[in-house]
Specification:
The structure holds 2 protein chains of 2 kinds. By secondary structure, chain A is α+β, with helices and mostly antiparallel strands. Chain A is built from 23 helices and 19 strands. In chain A, the strands form 6 sheets. In chain A, strands 2, 3, 4, 5 and 10 form a 5-stranded mixed β-sheet that branches. Classes of the chains: A alpha+beta, B mainly alpha. At the A-B interface, strand 3, strand 8, helix 11 and helix 23 of A face helix 1 and helix 2 of B.
């Protein structure tokens, strides 16, 4: 009874206590096991988040070089100064000093800081010269830091501006080759795991997750020297003749590589000033124009392929030749012409009559095999494909106008491409900007036909032809001039486009070049006067630079014995139609 | 009995040493990685310097500049027809 009053037996009490303690132990162990085995991931992640960071490894953008490895676009290191406004504003009395070394107005700096006073990051000045940035950092102002960035630099400035394009502040291509090969040049950023302390400093590099893949270099087919030559000659011509603009393209006949492509006016891609979109455009690829008489060799090629005898006698009328309600005229009366004389004198009537005897379908097929009306597949961003309407919509007038280069629009690159095909034994190679780039080969015409046309075109640059100024001493040159009017809505303006396209040397063709000058206003407007000299000067230099052996050595010997004055310019050619009503 | 004890001791020792080895491998990995990062940083510095020099070279060797120095400072010109001789093979 007494025992009962004292409660449970000591032994029972012991069992209870041990039981409770054991239970507590089991709970603790179970909890620990639960945390370490089941929800381990969560805690691991939460822990890591407090000090481990995965940060990207920056890549450098690849270089763009010309065909000989000369750098055309290089990323060079620059420093960007940034501040931590919170930290900087703690010690505001150093602001004037900072403003002074950065060459910023003090009130502007204070205003900027006031706007971002709650933030921890603000760029003060991006892309500074590393030496200047070091001078700022040496002041040791708290809260001022710098980070390294890269900036694209174009040593050749305006000479290559449109072809290369440029990049934005974050080094991504915006235009031109920079845009077309952006992925290749950019590379793949890697990532690594690091341990950071509270202030964001890297304590230790822990692990490499993925190595960075730097951007690869891009070797263009452009030759820096020819490019420079073409640019300076084009610029000179445009300035002397007070023209509005111009473009020139030089192609390697055998490979389709673009050796030079220039446009004037141009811009300096290194300055970050606002550049007007019309200057940024690579007009040689993006702008279309009517080729005028430079089209006639392809009309002749089509006739030859159709089986027409090259010695055919085509009468040309003095007063013009009527097709339907249209009158086709020549500048002069040339009498009866054969194909050679048709090209040398550039007779519109002759070309129209040749085309008149062909079927629409045949003429169209030859033109499209020469690449007209199609994209050139050069891969340049924003390339225009020329306009060539379907043959079943051509009437006799349309066919006649196309035969001498109206009612069809092409780019300067397409003209050069078609002439290169003529020179390459009738094999069309799509142009490429990359050295050794893949090109599409496609037969345009038979090698015999191409050879015949090329031979006829040689006389254009001889005395009596329309482009004597294109002749190059020691080499046989084939070429064709052209003059066309700017097409505007409802007809043609009295503004001219002077063209010349040619190939050199005939024996073993190496270069094809097209020159386009828009709206020359001083000293004539014929292609033979304006554009042919550009061809002459550029090709003369290019042949020397590329060590092309002369194929007309006799001319050297002949000229040595009898010095002759330069032949007078008799360049005249069929002008564009006066009152054209185009379809 | 002693054979069993021996086996147990051997396993225990093996486990301990492998644990130490893991720690050591981990440590040396970190050391190596730190070294690698250091070398990479140095390589990047050299690359950056190389690019800077390339830019400088390209600026100095720019055609426009060469032409103006050749024609204006050194008064050079391309040989005229009267100054060339064609050698007949």
């Amino acid at each position: 009874m007494k025992m009962q009053a004292r409660g449970p037996q000591p032994r029972t009490r012991l069992v209870w206590i041990v039981g409770v303690l054991l239970f507590c132990g089991v709970v603790v162990v179970a909890r620990a096991a639960y945390m370490q085995l089941v929800t381990e991931d969560f805690y691991q992640r939460a822990g890591n988040e407090r000090f481990l960071r995965v940060v990207p490894i920056a890549t450098t953008r690849g270089m763009i070089t010309d065909r000989n490895g000369e750098p055309l676009a290089v990323s060079s290191p620059v420093e960007s100064i940034w501040v931590n406004p919170k930290e900087l504003l703690l010690d505001a009395k150093r602001l004037p000093e900072l403003a002074k070394v950065l060459d910023l107005p003090l009130d502007e700096l204070t205003l900027k800081l006031a706007q971002k006073k709650d933030k921890q990051f603000m760029y003060l000045r991006r892309h500074m010269n590393p030496d200047a940035a070091k001078a700022v950092l040496d002041r040791d102002i708290p809260g001022v830091y710098s980070s390294r960035e890269f900036r694209r630099f174009y040593p050749h400035r305006e000479v290559m501006a449109q072809v290369l394009g440029f990049t934005n502040l974050d080094e991504h291509g915006v235009e031109g080759m920079e845009l077309a090969y952006d992925d290749w040049l950019t590379g793949k950023p890697g990532s690594q795991k690091i341990i950071r302390d509270r202030r964001g400093r890297i304590v230790e590099n822990v692990d490499l997750i993925r190595p960075a893949e730097n951007g690869k270099d891009l070797v263009l087919s452009i030759d820096r020297r020819i490019q420079y030559l073409a640019y300076s000659e084009l610029k000179k011509t445009i300035q002397t003749h007070k023209a509005r603009a111009g473009s020139a393209v030089v192609l390697d006949v055998r490979t389709g590589e673009i050796l030079a492509m220039v446009n004037y006016p141009s811009y300096n891609p290194n300055s970050r000033l606002r550049i007007s979109p019309s200057l940024r455009r690579n007009a040689a690829v993006t702008d279309v124009l009517e080729p005028g008489s430079t089209m006639k060799p392809f009309t002749v090629a089509a006739a030859l392929e159709d089986g027409v005898d090259p010695n055919i006698v085509i009468p040309t009328e003095a007063g013009g030749y009527r097709i339907a309600n249209r009158r086709v005229t020549d500048t002069h009366y040339y009498g009866p012409v054969d194909m050679r004389r048709l090209l040398v004198k550039s007779s519109n009537i002759g070309a129209a009559k040749l085309a008149g005897n062909m079927s629409n379908q045949h003429f169209y097929s030859v033109l499209s095999r020469f690449g007209f009306g199609e994209n050139t597949e050069s891969g340049f961003p924003g390339e225009s494909s020329a306009v060539l309407s379907a043959p079943n919509r051509w009437g006799p007038v349309e066919k006649a106008t196309i035969s001498y280069g109206y009612g069809i629009s092409v780019t300067p690159l397409q003209i050069a491409q078609a002439y290169a095909a003529l020179a390459n034994d009738g094999m069309l190679i799509s142009p490429t900007f990359v050295k050794g780039g893949e090109a599409r080969h496609q037969r345009a015409v038979d090698a015999v036909v191409a050879g015949q046309v090329l031979n006829m075109l040689e006389d254009v640059t001889k005395i009596g032809g329309t482009a004597v100024q294109a002749a190059i001493k020691g080499y046989r040159v084939a070429g064709k001039t052209g003059t066309s009017r700017r097409a505007v809505a409802g007809g043609y303006e009295k503004r001219y486009i002077s063209l010349f396209a040619g190939v050199v040397p005939i024996e073993n063709p190496r270069f094809a070049m097209s020159v386009v000058v828009h709206e020359p206003s001083v000293g004539g407007y014929y292609g033979g006067v304006i554009s042919a000299p550009v061809f002459h000067n550029v090709m003369d230099g290019a042949l020397r630079l590329m060590d092309v052996p002369p194929d007309n050595i006799e001319q050297w010997y002949a000229d040595k014995s009898v010095p002759v004055a330069a032949p007078p310019v008799v360049a005249e050619e069929a002008p564009p139609p006066d009152t054209g009503v185009m379809p | 009995m002693s054979a069993r004890l021996f086996l147990l001791m051997a396993l225990l020792l093996g486990m301990l040493s492998s644990a130490v080895a893991v720690v050591y491998a981990r440590h040396s990995h970190r050391q190596a990685y730190v070294e690698l990062s250091k070398l990479q940083r140095r390589r990047d510095e050299h690359n950056v310097e190389f690019r800077r020099l390339q830019t400088e070279q390209a600026t100095v060797a720019e055609t426009n500049r060469i032409v103006s120095i050749a024609t204006e400072k050194l008064s050079m010109h391309f040989p005229l027809d009267t100054e060339t001789t064609v050698v007949q093979p």
